[in-house]
Amino acid sequence: MPIINRIADYASDMTTWRRHLHTIPELQFACHKTAAFVVERLREFGVDEIHEGIAETGVVAIIEGRGEGPTIGLRADMDALPMTEETGLDYASKTPGAMHACGHDGHTTMLLGAAKYLAETRNFAGRVALIFQPAEEGGGGGDAMCREGIMDRFGIGEVYAMHNAPGLPEGMFATTTGPIMAAADTFHIHITGRGGHGARPHETADPVVAACGIVQALQTISSRNLDPEKQLVISTTQIHTGTVDNVIPDTAYINGTVRTFDKEVQAMVVRRMGQIVEHVAAGYDLTARLDFEYGYPPTVNHPAQTDFAVAVAQEVVGDAQVDAAMAPIMGAEDFAYMLEARPGAYLMLGQGEGPSVHNTAYNFNDDIAPIGASFFARVVERAQPAREVA
After folding, report:
1. 234 plus 103 within the same structural domain
2. Among residues 296, 313, 337, which one ends one of the domains?
């Protein structure tokens, strides 16, 4: 596997970094210890600039290449999840109720590995901007960093990122042009009826029965309103109502998620949900309100940058180890905001069999860190070949 030899030389250092980060998981924007560790390593590597406190704890580091040229962005997320680790590892989380259950400790390590190599060799033109981002897990840290102006401030022209993928063969890359991950929206439905005694339902406007009717009707959006060649998920995940067996309650609450890849499909879902909620409720002689909460947009890879990323991945791991036409995933990713701001690509890097992400038994596979770091480094060197400086 032709990973960069210099990066392979400090694979054990990367394992040490990653396992330390694994012990100090931090949530959302509060990645203070993680960012401090990142900054300490970057200073050791001798990067040219370090900018801290972006989106609270985000870090952008700049490495200057040889000769004039554009700036390419490489991004890694740093935050963990509010879960209690059950791996039994000797380097397990030391923070109660938080763990790196999605491998962001590994992503940060891979970008640090690339940073060390690029700062040593500088075998590229222009600059590289290393983006260490907080709050990917629901906080929208990617959006926050973009709104704070990192793309313009650092002159970033293109941007790349990757995510580890349990279940994908170890060291295999997978990606696709266009949508690779879905938009993730949330719906809240508040039903107001008229409660009463369970033995006298005719005196009530029962929100329980209305809730059942609304949930069933929502499923017809996928089956009767959607072009069958397009993709949509509507999942009702919560219904809360009632207190005891002989009382019909006054209210009910329904909650769930909507996943789409297409803005037109998303708009259709919002319209049809509103109609269903209003009119089904009216059919039960009560009222209901839909609150639709827009979340992360779809993560959409740009064609030219995806083709380039595929070629780089093939150079690192071989043609047979790269899937350039993976099926899009219904999960969501806030790198979407960076891809809305600049052209770029997002890839998956297989870490072999084992527990999936967002699982209390999950652990990042340290063997793939040099592969990811080599990919990041080669992206810079191939996109911006070094020029001789007179």
Report:
1. no
2. 296
